[in-house]
């Protein structure tokens, strides 16, 4: 049965970010949906203009000025499109500007259930602010009966009467509590408490205090195999209810509105009814399937879907002006992460053997999305972007880790001050090359942390052969710096078979727009993505292995289909760039040296493109990355800065070489397409005409070991 969609000749697609609001105009041109123009304006989320639609209307006015097409009547969008061509048939929107969903993960055992709940929370814009479990006494806040603060050594005192009734460390996943050794119990009964000795609170009181301090939107209680003791869950639920009760009483006493935490129960189904009876309407409860039905198996999808719904229904409507924006939109306001995940999955299934990793760096949030034909995984961190979220990122990295990516000397104070100033003034773009490098260092660390978390959750490494960069920090810099940002932060090893990874950039910032359009017309979204979305940077061949600095790692021969031959040697610790335009193809032959290899080849082997196959170029050409994995830095500071400087200068040297050869193989190393400028990146498009796609499926980009 064929699905029919409403006839739409033109549509405006808005993406409301924390810093910038972008609106794209898509129209039917020559019987095909094509990108026509884009407008950008600062997002309007705070005083003096706390209405997100003001930024949307300002971006639409930019499109009007660029195209001469009338879209607004005052502050009202003209819809549907009129006979004179004014207006549009539809408007759709997505947003990543709302505050992240604050989540506390609770479970019977911290290392199992609570960790599973934390992992499941990374499917949308969430911030896991803490965990509580029956085997955890880890709250840093210690209170006593007389108001004094006891020393850290009293964090867990088996002699205190309060502690003898608390759960013990080492609790098993089925909820069974080990028996306390008899001598300890006898000692605790006989020992007298000193008169002025600070007494630690009970486990429950301390967890209640911790929960109130964290102030989550949602508490997720999860895990426990079939038959786990319901009393264990009752203790966790009781903590949530008591924290909410104390918040309500405090609100009554102060006259303030205090927020109660919702409860999501993802434990055994036989315990669900008992949880509902215990809560008895005292707070909002959502029931989902057990995320850890057995100790060795996770089932995260139901919880991820529920948290995404809560964010969509509770947090997104808190955007100022959301009601008016939803009235303008023909579909439900979507999250940017949902739009990007949809397009990532589409690309993985649309092209045979595609294994895609999309890296999104924004002002408030950062995310990774991986998809292949059978698997999808996401790592979304709310409040972890490169402006509003920079202070949170700073808390998870260090000045030394940031400094290693910079080609100049810098002290800890300047790195910290940059993060704090960016948090206070999030819409200010880097004004100097130095600031651009600093922001790039933070971007690399954000990607590194996201990938490390994603790998910890994955049963096997992510074997991706296509890497897509998304977001302002990726787009608003020269293309070579974008490529380095992805190669440095994620350090791809290339496909396991070939050692090759394709680099693409969402330079028109249409990837999330295509995902939003899919809810209105999937065919239009697919067409828009294929023809106007991605900017092909080029392929990167990853040479793995380590050696002495400067020793030759590989000898590369590139033979273009027009007969030109280029040869170069690549030293360990360096990057080489070979001229190969997006509309050119070539065969590749690499003679590896010593202990170096590519993909699944043996060390020192001769590898080449398989017979009848070719590698296509891109805006940057063909990249040979021989820095090894992981990338190793020189221990001496001066040598390290020289090392990083050489990496940044690779593109400039390649340009000079191209000029000396009298060729024009490279596209300009510019960043984004200027706002409002028509798109149509046909020459550099990463997704070509359908005929080219079939040709790609037939030929592939694989490197085959020469026999």
Percent helix: 25-40%
- End-to-end Cα distance, whole Å, is 49 Å
Protein structure class: alpha/beta
Number of domains: 3
Strand content: 15-25%
Radius of gyration: 28 Å
Low-confidence stretches: 1-5, 139-191, 193-199, 667-707
Describe this structure in words.
- The structure is a single chain.
- By secondary structure, the protein is α/β, with parallel strands linked by helices.
- Helices cover 34% and strands 21% of the residues.
- It has 3 domains: 10-98, Nucleotidyltransferase, domain 5; 101-318; 334-705, no CATH class.
- The strands form 5 sheets. It has an 8-stranded mixed beta sheet, with helices on both faces. Strands 19, 20, 22, 23, 24 and 26 form a 6-stranded antiparallel beta sheet that branches. The protein has a 5-stranded mixed beta sheet with strand order 3-2-1-6-12, sandwiched between helices.
- A hairpin with a 4-residue loop joins strand 14 and strand 15 (376-381).
- Helix 5 packs across helix 6 (230-254), helix 6 (230-254) runs parallel beside helix 7 and helix 14 packs parallel to helix 16.
């Amino acid at each position: 049965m064929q699905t029919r969609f409403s006839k739409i000749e033109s549509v405006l697609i808005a993406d409301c970010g924390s810093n910038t609001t972008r609106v794209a105009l898509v129209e039917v041109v020559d019987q095909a949906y094509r990108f026509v123009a884009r407008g950008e304006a600062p997002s309007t989320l705070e005083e003096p203009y706390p209405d997100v639609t003001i930024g949307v209307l300002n971006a639409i006015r930019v499109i009007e000025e660029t195209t001469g097409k009338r879209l607004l009547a005052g502050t009202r969008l003209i819809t549907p499109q009129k006979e004179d061509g004014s207006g549009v048939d539809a408007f759709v929107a997505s947003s990543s500007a709302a505050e992240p969903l604050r989540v506390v993960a609770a479970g019977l055992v911290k290392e199992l259930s609570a960790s599973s709940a934390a992992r499941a929370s990374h499917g949308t814009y969430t911030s896991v602010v803490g965990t509580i479990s029956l085997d955890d006494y880890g709250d840093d806040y210690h209170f006593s009966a007389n108001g004094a603060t006891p020393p850290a050594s009293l964090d867990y005192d088996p002699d205190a009467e309060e502690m003898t009734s608390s759960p013990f460390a080492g609790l098993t996943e089925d909820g069974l509590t080990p028996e306390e050794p008899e001598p300890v119990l006898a000692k605790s009964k006989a020992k007298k408490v000193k008169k002025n000795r600070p007494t630690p609170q009970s486990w429950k009181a301390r967890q209640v205090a911790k929960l109130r301090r964290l102030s989550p939107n949602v508490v997720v209680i999860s895990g426990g195999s079939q038959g786990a003791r319901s009393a264990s869950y009752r203790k966790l639920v009781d903590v949530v209810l008591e924290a909410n009760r104390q918040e309500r009483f405090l609100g009554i006493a102060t006259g303030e509105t205090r927020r109660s935490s919702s409860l999501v129960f993802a434990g055994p189904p036989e315990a669900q009814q008992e949880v509902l009876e215990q809560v008895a309407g005292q707070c909002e409860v959502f029931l989902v399937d057990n995320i850890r039905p057995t100790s060795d198996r996770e089932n995260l999808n139901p919880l991820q879907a529920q948290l995404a719904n809560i964010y969509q229904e509770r947090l997104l409507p808190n955007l100022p002006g959301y009601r008016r924006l939803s009235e303008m939109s023909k579909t439900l306001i979507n999250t940017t992460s949902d739009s990007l995940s949809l397009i990532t999955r589409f690309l993985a299934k649309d092209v045979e053997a595609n294994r895609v990793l999309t890296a999104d760096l924004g002002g408030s949030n950062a995310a990774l999305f991986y998809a292949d034909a059978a698997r999808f995984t996401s790592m979304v961190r709310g409040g972890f972007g490169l402006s509003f979220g920079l202070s949170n990122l700073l808390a998870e990295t260090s000045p030394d880790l940031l400094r290693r990516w910079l080609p100049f000397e810098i002290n800890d104070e300047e790195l910290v001050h940059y993060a704090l100033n960016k948090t206070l003034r999030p819409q200010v773009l880097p004004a100097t090359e130095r600031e651009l490098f600093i922001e790039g260092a933070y971007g690399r660390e954000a990607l590194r942390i996201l990938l490390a978390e994603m790998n910890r959750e994955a049963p096997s490494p992510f074997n991706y052969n296509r890497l897509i960069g998304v977001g302002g920090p990726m787009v608003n810099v020269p293309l070579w710096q974008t490529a380095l940002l992805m190669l440095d932060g994620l350090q791809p090893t290339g496909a396991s078979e070939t050692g090759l990874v394709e680099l693409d950039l969402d330079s028109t910032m249409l990837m999330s727009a295509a995902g939003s359009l899919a809810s209105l017309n999937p065919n239009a979204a697919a067409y828009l993505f294929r023809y106007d979305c991605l900017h092909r940077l080029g392929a990167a061949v990853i040479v793995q292995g380590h050696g002495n600095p400067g020793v030759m790692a590989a000898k590369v021969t590139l033979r273009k289909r027009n007969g030109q031959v280029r040869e170069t040697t690549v030293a360990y610790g360096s990057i080489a760039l070979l001229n190969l335009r997006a509309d050119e193809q070539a065969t590749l032959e690499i003679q590896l040296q010593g202990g170096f290899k590519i993909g699944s080849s043996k060390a020192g082997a001769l590898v080449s493109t398989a017979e009848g196959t070719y590698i296509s170029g891109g805006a940057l050409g063909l990249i040979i990355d021989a820095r090894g994995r992981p990338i190793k830095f020189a221990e001496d500071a001066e040598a390290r800065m020289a090392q990083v400087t050489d990496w940044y200068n690779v593109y400039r040297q390649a340009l000079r070489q191209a000029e000396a050869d009298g060729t024009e193989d490279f596209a300009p190393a510019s960043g984004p397409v200027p706002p409002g400028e028509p798109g149509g990146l046909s020459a550099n498009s990463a997704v070509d005409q359908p005929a080219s796609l079939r040709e790609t499926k037939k030929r592939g980009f694989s490197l085959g070991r020469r026999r």
